[in-house]
Amino acid sequence: MVWIAVAAAVCGAFGLAFGAQLQSMAVRSHAGGLSLSLGNVGKLLSSGRWVGGLLLLGLGMVLNVFALASAPLTVVQPIGAIALVITTVVNSKVNNLTLNRPTVMAIISCMAGSVGFVLLAIAVTNASNEITAAEALTIEGILALVVICFGGLYLMFRRRLGAFFYIVAAGVLFGFVAVLVRTLAVSVVHLDGRSLWTLPWLAVVAVVVAGLLGTYFVQNAYSKGPPDLVIAGLTVIDPIVGIALGISILGELRPDVHPAMSVAMAVCALLAIIGVVALSRHHPDVLERRAKARNDKESVGQGTYNLAENKFMTDS
To answer: Is residue 299 domain-resident?
Structure first.
C-alpha cells in the first residue's frame, strides 16, 4: 500500500507543477505582476488559464490526499520535489530562459535530498495510521498560533513583504494542512458506518482557514517571484513542517531507528534546503530581475546628473 501511495503522490506532483505554472502565468498577465487583491480576483476567475491551473492543482491535491491516507506523512510529503523539476523546465521554456549551472546543481541537490529522504523514511516509519484526538487537538492549537502570527505580520507589514515571506508562510501553513488532511482522511477511511458527525470537524475548519490563507500567500508569491522558486520553497518547507509534526507529535518513526539512519535522513534534508537557498540566489529569473533593477537605478542616477548638467549650462 505504501508504494501505491508513493505513485499517487508522484502523479499529484505533476498536477501541482503544471497547475502552478498556469496560475503563475495568469497572475502575471491579469494582475500586472502586482500583489493579489480582491479587485484582481474577478479577472483571474475569467481567465481560462488560471481556472485550468486551479483544476490541475485540485487533481494534484486529491491524489495527495489519497497518498496521505495510505502512508505516513514522513514518506509522502517529500515526494512533491518532482514538481520543482517539472516547473523549472516548463518555466524556462515559456520564458526563454537558459538554466545556468548553479540552478541545475540546486535542482539536483533538492531532488537528491528529497528522494533520498523518502527512500530512507519508507524503511523506518510505522505502518499504523491511527491518530488520536489529543494529537489532532495539539496540532490544531499550534496551527492557531501560526495563523495569528503570519496573519498579524501580513496586516502590519504587507507593503514591505517580499516573495520570501509569502513562500515561508504558505509552506508552513500547508505543512499543517497536510497533517490535518491526513487526520481527516484516516478518520473517513475508518468511519465504518458511523455518522459523519463523529468526524473531527475542528480539523475541517482548521484546514479551510489555513488552506485559504496559504493559497492567498501563494498567489502573492507568484506575483513577486518565479514560479519554480515558489514551488522550491513549498517543496522543502511544507515537508519539513509536516515531517516534524509527524515525528514529534504523531510518532511516525519507529523507536528502534539506528542513529546512522537518522544522520542520513538529516543529511538528505540538508541537501534539499541547500538546493532551495542556491536556487533563490542563482535562478536566471532572479538574476535577470536584479540586473534590471540595477540598470533602472543607474538610469535614474544618470538622468539626475544630466538634469543638473543642463541646469548648470543654462545658468552659465
So the answer is: no
Does residue 181 belong to any structural domain of this protein? yes
Q: Count Cα atoms within 13 angstroms, Cβ side, for 266.
A: 6
Residue 151 covered by a domain = yes
Any residues with CB less than 8 A from the CB of 50 and at least 6 apart, and which? 22, 23, 26, 27, 30, 44
- CB-based contact 87:231 (threshold 8 Å): yes
What's this model's pTM, rounded to 2 decimal places? 0.69
pLDDT of the chain along its 316 residues, tens only? Answer: 687 888 888 888 888 888 877 877 777 665 554 445 555 666 667 677 778 888 888 888 888 888 887 888 788 877 877 777 777 777 777 777 777 888 888 888 888 888 888 888 888 887 666 778 888 889 999 999 999 999 999 999 888 888 888 988 999 999 999 888 888 887 776 666 566 666 777 888 999 999 999 989 988 887 777 766 777 777 778 888 888 888 888 888 888 888 898 899 899 888 887 887 777 677 666 666 666 766 766 666 555 444 444 444 444 4
Range of the domain at 236: 84-285
What total number of domains does the chain contain?
Answer: 1
Residue 278 falls inside a structural domain: yes
